[in-house]
Design goal:
A hairpin with a 2-residue loop joins strand 5 and strand 6 (49-53). It is built from ten helices and 13 strands. The N and C termini lie far apart (44 Å). It has 284 residues and is α/β, with parallel strands linked by helices. Helix content is 30%, strand content 30%. It folds into two domains: 2-53, Spermidine Synthase, Chain: A, domain 2 (Roll); 57-281, Rossmann fold, CATH 3.40.50. Bound molecules: S-adenosylmethionine (SAM). The site of S-adenosylmethionine has 26 residues, from strand 6, strand 7 and helix 5.
Length: 284
């Protein structure tokens, strides 16, 4: 039995058995490794950290996409920053009402390797005529994008380390604000409230976003292979409140079959534990 092990904190490790290491390479940006096991199927890591696996990817990719569409069913133009495995794009492309999706992933090798080893998330994405793929830095891209270009920005990034750092800055969030229309919604990978390093990242990101967007909220989901299994997305908006403007009837009319998200769970996801609310408040 071979074991992939990730350090969740100095005194806590998470291991997954695998039968075969499918591929490993160092791209211009990061170490990319693909493994295949029984419990979680094929999975890949970036710089040794779990990114996506066949078994629980649906949780993350449904939860980063559907709450925004259930809040503003009129979303037409979507920008994805990061998301190199293709899972976020796959969920967005399920909306026939979406007219354009731009995915800005800094590392083309991630996408190409996912097309080969992780078709569950990457296949069909590039072939969709509404899709534009750009292999460049997301911060540079938004800086060079004209204002009011997108209704939705999904920041599907790695953690705020190495290349991902720029996607957790005030500069980046300000540019996202400018590039969003007046109906704009920003969803960002908002780290986790449990282990201290991720909790610090969560607090810093929330503080920066709250200073820019009039409506900000945080929602949770449970994904076994991310540190502590309790993970968050940020929901920031110029106009729409994710609970006041939730439109279950309209979302159900899209007739999109999901394995995790539904509009009842939508409400529950925004009901955070006290220790999470305290971490997000300015007091702590
Ligand atoms: N779901 C995963 C998670 O929560 O950690 C992340 C999915 S995806 C693999 C993250 C992607 O963000 C990676 O492919 C990485 O190359 C990309 N990325 C990191 N920094 C970036 C940047 N500055 N611009 C664009 N993409 C970036």
């Amino acid at each position: 039995m071979n074991w992939y092990t990730e350090e969740w904190s100095k005194e806590c490790r998470f291991s997954i058995a695998y039968d075969e290491k499918l591929h490993g390479e160092k791209s211009k940006y990061q170490e990319i490794e693909f493994y295949k096991g029984k419990e979680f199927g094929t999975f890949f890591t970036l710089d040794g950290l779990m990114m996506v696996n066949e078994k629980d990817e649906f949780i993350y990719h449904e939860m980063i996409v559907h709450p925004a569409f259930a809040t503003n069913p009129g979303i037409k133009r979507v920008l994805i920053i990061g998301g190199g495995d293709g899972g976020t794009a796959r969920e967005v492309l399920r909306y026939k009402t979406v007219e354009e999706v731009v995915m800005v992933e800094i590392d083309e090798r991630v996408f190409r390797l996912c097309q080969k080893y992780l078709p569950v998330t990457a296949s069909g994405v590039e072939e969709d005529p509404r899709m534009t793929l750009k292999f460049e830095d997301g911060l540079a891209y938004v800086k060079n994008t004209k204002e009011a270009s997108f209704d939705l920005i999904l920041v599907d990034s790695t953690d705020p380390i190495s290349v991902g750092e720029g996607l957790f800055t005030t500069d980046f969030y300000n540019e996202c604000y400018r590039v969003l229309t007046d109906e704009g919604i920003l969803i960002n990978q908002h780290e986790s409230p449990y282990f201290s390093a991720y909790r610090e990242n969560m607090k810093k990101a929330h503080k920066k976003i709250k200073a820019i967007f009039p409506i900000t909220n945080v929602y949770q989901y449970h994904i076994p292979t991310y540190p502590s299994g309790h993970w968050l997305f940020g929901f920031a908006s110029k106009k729409y409140d994710p609970l006041q403007h939730l439109n279950p009837i309209r979302w159900n009319e899209f007739d999109i079959r999901t394995k995790y998200y539904n509009t009842d769970l939508h409400r529950g996801a925004f009901c955070l534990p006290n220790y999470v609310k305290e971490g997000l408040s300015d007091e702590e």
